Amino acid sequence: MWPTVLILLLCSLLSSLALASVYHDYCIVGGGPSGLQLGYFLKTASRDYIVFERSNISGSFFQQYPRHRKLISLNKRNTGKVNKEFNLRHDWNSLLSHDPDLLVTKYSREIFPNADVLVKYLDDYQKKLDINVKFNANIYNIRSEKNQSSPDGQVFTMQDQTGQSYFCRTLIMATGVSTPNIPKGDGINLTVGYESMSLNPEDYEGKSVLILGRGNSAFEIADSIYGYANFIHLLGRSRIRLAWATHYVGDLRAVNNAVLDTYQLKSLDGLFEMHVDAEMKLIQKGGKIYLPEVDDELITAPFERTILEPYDIVIRALGFIFDTSPFYNTSLTLGAGKLKKYPAITHNYESVDYKGLFYAGTASHSLDFRKSSGGFIHGFRYTARALHRLMEWRYESVPWPYIDLNLPQLMNYVIKRMNEVSGTYQMFQVLGDVLIVSEDKESIRAIEEFPIHLLHELPQRSGHKGSAYIVIVLEYGHNFSGPNNDVFRLDRAVGGAIYASLSNFLHPVIYYYSQLPTEESMQSKSKNETLPRPDYIHHIVEDFYTSWQKSQTHILPLRRFFEKVLSVDLRTFYTKSCFLVSMTKDKTSQHCKQSYLQNQGLYGTKELKLSSMYRGLILTI
């Protein structure tokens, strides 16, 4: 739709730029997992794109991090299943592609592989799929320039370190969140960062160590040295958040938390809470580092007020923030509060500052931070696909991919999706399947893994509309997850379909809307509501195996829900029953109408004809 316009635009811009610019429709900055994933989708769609990577290899971040090299993302090779989609639910490192060999499960047998395995995998992914990556290209000086010929009213220009200029219609930042977070408090210069600390445990022999931070990197450090140090203290601004309690994979994982044992069993190591910001001060005396006396307001764990022992080493492990330096003299809006390390974006992954500027991968995690998995490979491989589909409709006039179903196919389709697919399973409460009911209510159009927080804009974002809408989302119980909750209590799970709405663990929830919710209702829903109040809602009761296939517990209640909201009989019948009903009744079921009566039934057999004659339906065979 735009190439001709852009060629003319190229000609006009070349005369105004000091160096000849290279043009692409899509520019992706960052050749890590999200940049490669989006590059794969653009290549598959035969789009004009380029991926810029400042290093000489894809995924260079993982050449350095995690520092002690053990990934904490699952590499579960065996599930007892052969279904590829189902297995991706438990493979947290692989990207999506058509190549069955491009899976990290084929690269390592370890449940938590070494990070070098991921670097090798990403390098193979780029080379085998021939993704267009320009290596050793450090992009900077990104700016927007107004252009009325562009669909967004502007284009983006940038340069690399050689002075080569580029410009593109659509810019996607896939640089992750990779700049160490360094607070401005006095004495922060006395600390050594996670990014540069010694990895030799002998350097901590007989030392007293303070670690600033309470995330996975902080505990990764503690686990690596707690057999060498005198003691280790971990300081954070709030209580510890355990991933198995919060159901957020970015919180502290069990693979890293051995020091919790030595703390709770009183073996010198410990945790305490204090605001780690500009108010915190470190001082040095006699070669030792101290936390000086502070105001009571700064210490949030009152029983730990006496922790004023000197330390030999203080290590800063306060996470990472988004790097804005590639942008020229541009003030990018960042998130507020706990989201300040991410750029501020809308639910279509677009910058709040510039049309046509999108974010992919971890940089887009502000949308589901501490809610879902969009900051990690097993989540953003699907949000990258959703972003690509949004851009396909917006810039290429290609509607969101869909599957048309007759009503009798509805149950089998939904049951299969709930029990197999990985996208909605990993991006729970963010991506969902939307079933669009046709105007005559005789068929369904299914669009898969749509960003549900754009539901009110479905026709504008996908190119599809209908007379009613069914949304299928996976959710945890609203009051189940949280750092203060006992997720191992005896009544943590419910049984029986009548208690389905009280389910705590991940389970499907089906919303029915006779018309799309409004923007106002999307914005005014409470924080415990995934979507605005629908006309009807149905919970499918949680299952120990996350397998929702039991006939009485899962399937029958679901069928009755669909029959209620669609005013249709979705039962299936044998051919003999369809024949009998069609000969004796004025109306037949949807199954008989759209299968048997459409010449999809069985041919008449001798036994069927004898049965019909016996019932008086025919006189002779």
TrEMBL record:
Segment forming the signal sequence: 1-20
GO cellular component annotations of the record: endoplasmic reticulum lumen
Pfam families: Pyr_redox_3 (PF13738)
GO molecular function, one term: monooxygenase activity
Keywords assigned by UniProt, alphabetized: Oxidoreductase, Signal
KW Signal (keyword) present: yes
Residue intervals passing through the bilayer: none
Name recorded for this polypeptide: FAD-dependent oxidoreductase domain-containing protein 2
